[in-house]
């Protein structure tokens, strides 16, 4: 007899194992052993077992949602900047005049570990309440060694204290700190010679990210960051082609990046390079919406090329104060022409792939983490259809209901 710990029944499952459909199972059962899925299939075919049976009482079970791009740890807020943008000032103009990312840097440097942890925890709990079981958290509001380390320690603490799988990313190359004005290359020296090596040695980051943009860093500067990351065995990812086309995504593909994110201004040649490299396209509808961007990311081209598309919240105090990943699924459909199936793939199997977790998370499959959500819905498409509301009935991480 199999030695299952728990068996869940009483739901239909959208397993997301196939790349072309929900791969659903009517009246399904999931057996969990040591936090992993040990068996999944129609409940009528469940092997004999002596484990505790939990009936979830109807609805659909999907893999737990994966939010593969967030900036959840930060001090202060930027609601005043939001009001300025509503009056017509642009994100770039605000950034160039000392607002934007650098103003959050000032608040984050001042904040204590406790303050950062308390505020980030509330935001993460909101994402979790809406179905997230796996999340990435970036640094990037420190821009000095001590504060980048502080942010990443807070991020690790979030993962330890909450029922969520958490991956951290070092984003020291996010913006130029004020003390380095006019000396971007010298700041990149600091990132490559001090910040990344120290953080890698302390095991504080699972990946390295950068912001390749005229208000941030050039392709050549990001390439130095990527070389350093790979020398420390850390995979890379990039914020690229958000406000203009600098070709960061082509660079990301050359360095076999896990993902290239934003992509409104992605060129065809870079889209092809991403397809060849297996780099995931992370689409961030929240930033597009909040910045009233009008240039659409080339979704049909990415689809035609077979580039896996993930969707993330980009939760951050400036361009995307987002607390619901499901809302991002809806926006991806309405604003970008995703299908509800693609949207669910974007926050499950493709989101996991964007974190290098494609073989352990984001699908309901034997051997994968038993991270799943039971939703109060009749059809999986409802996950993109409803704006807001409380659709989560149950949430399990490593096989335990939370
Ligand atoms: O992903 N693009 C750069 N970084 C963030 C914005 C961060 C901020 O404005 O504070 C983003 O949109
Ligand atoms: Fe971002």
Keywords:
402 residues, alpha/beta, Urease, subunit C, domain 1, TIM Barrel, 2 domains, binds N-(iminomethyl)-L-glutamic acid
Polypeptide structure, described:
This protein is an alpha/beta fold and 402 residues long. The chain folds into 2 domains: 6-63 and 363-401, Urease, subunit C, domain 1 (Roll); 65-353, Metal-dependent hydrolases (TIM Barrel), CATH 3.20.20. It is built from 15 helices and 16 strands.
How would you name the CATH homologous superfamily of the largest domain? Metal-dependent hydrolases
Distance, first to last CA: 28 Å
Uncertain stretches: none
Range of helix content: 25-40%
Main sheet record: 8 strands, mixed
Helix/strand/pairing category: alpha/beta
Strand residue percentage: 15-25%
Radius of gyration: 21 Å
CATH domain class name of the largest domain? Alpha Beta
Overall pLDDT score = 97
Spell out which ligands are present.
N-(iminomethyl)-L-glutamic acid, fe (iii) ion
Total strands: the figure is 16
Shape-level CATH architecture of the largest domain = Alpha-Beta Barrel
List the helices and strands and how they pair.
Elements: E1 6-14, E2 24-33, E3 36-42, E4 52-55, E5 60-63, E6 65-67, H1 79-86, H2 91-96, H3 101-110, H4 113-129, E7 132-138, H5 145-161, E8 165-173, H6 184-201, E9 207-212, H7 219-231, E10 237-240, H8 248-254, E11 259-262, H9 268-277, E12 280-283, H10 285-290, H11 299-305, E13 309-311, H12 325-336, H13 340-346, H14 349-354, E14 372-375, H15 382-385, E15 392-397, E16 400-401
Parallel strand pairs: 1-4, 1-5, 6-7, 7-8, 8-9, 9-10, 10-11, 11-12, 12-13
Antiparallel strand pairs: 1-2, 2-3, 5-14, 14-15, 15-16
Helix pairs in contact: 4-5, 6-7, 8-9, 12-13
């Amino acid at each position: 007899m199999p030695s299952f710990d728990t068996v869940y029944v009483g739901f239909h499952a959208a397993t997301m194992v196939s790349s072309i459909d929900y791969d659903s199972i009517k009246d399904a059962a999931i057996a969990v052993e040591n936090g992993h899925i040990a068996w999944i299939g129609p409940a009528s075919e469940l092997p004999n077992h002596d484990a505790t049976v939990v009936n979830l009482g109807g609805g659909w079970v999907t893999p737990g949602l994966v939010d593969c791009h967030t900036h959840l740890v930060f001090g202060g807020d930027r609601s005043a900047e939001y009001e300025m943008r509503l009056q017509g000032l642009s994100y770039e103009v605000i950034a160039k005049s000392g607002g934007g990312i650098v103003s959050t840097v000032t608040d984050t440097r001042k904040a204590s570990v406790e303050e950062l942890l308390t505020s980030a925890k509330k935001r993460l709990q909101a994402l979790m309440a809406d179905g997230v079981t796996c999340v990435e958290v970036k640094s990037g509001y420190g821009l000095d060694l001590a504060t980048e380390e502080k942010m990443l320690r807070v991020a690790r603490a979030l993962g330890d204290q909450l029922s969520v799988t958490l991956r951290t990313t070092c984003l020291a190359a996010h913006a130029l700190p004020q003390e380095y004005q006019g000396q971007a290359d010298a700041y990149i020296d600091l990132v490559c010679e001090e910040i990344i090596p120290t953080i890698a040695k302390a095991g504080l980051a699972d990946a390295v990210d950068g912001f390749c943009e005229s208000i941030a860093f050039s392709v050549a500067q990001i390439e130095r960051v990527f070389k350093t990351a790979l020398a420390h065995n850390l995979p890379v990812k990039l914020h690229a082609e958000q406000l203009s086309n600098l070709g960061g995504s082509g660079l990301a593909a050359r360095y076999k990046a896990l993902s290239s994110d934003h992509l409104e201004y992605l060129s065809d040649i870079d889209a092809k390079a991403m397809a060849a490299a297996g780099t995931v396209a992370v689409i961030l509808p929240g930033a597009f919406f909040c910045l009233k961007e009008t240039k659409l990311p080339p979704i049909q081209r990415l689809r035609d090329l077979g580039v896996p598309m993930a969707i993330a919240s980009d939760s951050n105090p400036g361009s995307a104060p987002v607390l619901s990943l499901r809302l991002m699924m809806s926006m991806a459909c309405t604003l970008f022409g995703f299908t509800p199936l693609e949207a669910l793939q974007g926050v499950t199997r493709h989101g996991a792939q964007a974190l290098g977790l494609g073989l352990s998370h984001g699908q309901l499959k034997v051997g994968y983490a038993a991270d799943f959500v039971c939703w109060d819905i009749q059809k999986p498409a409802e996950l993109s259809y409803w704006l807001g509301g409380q659709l989560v009935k149950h949430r399990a991480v490593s096989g335990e209901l939370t």
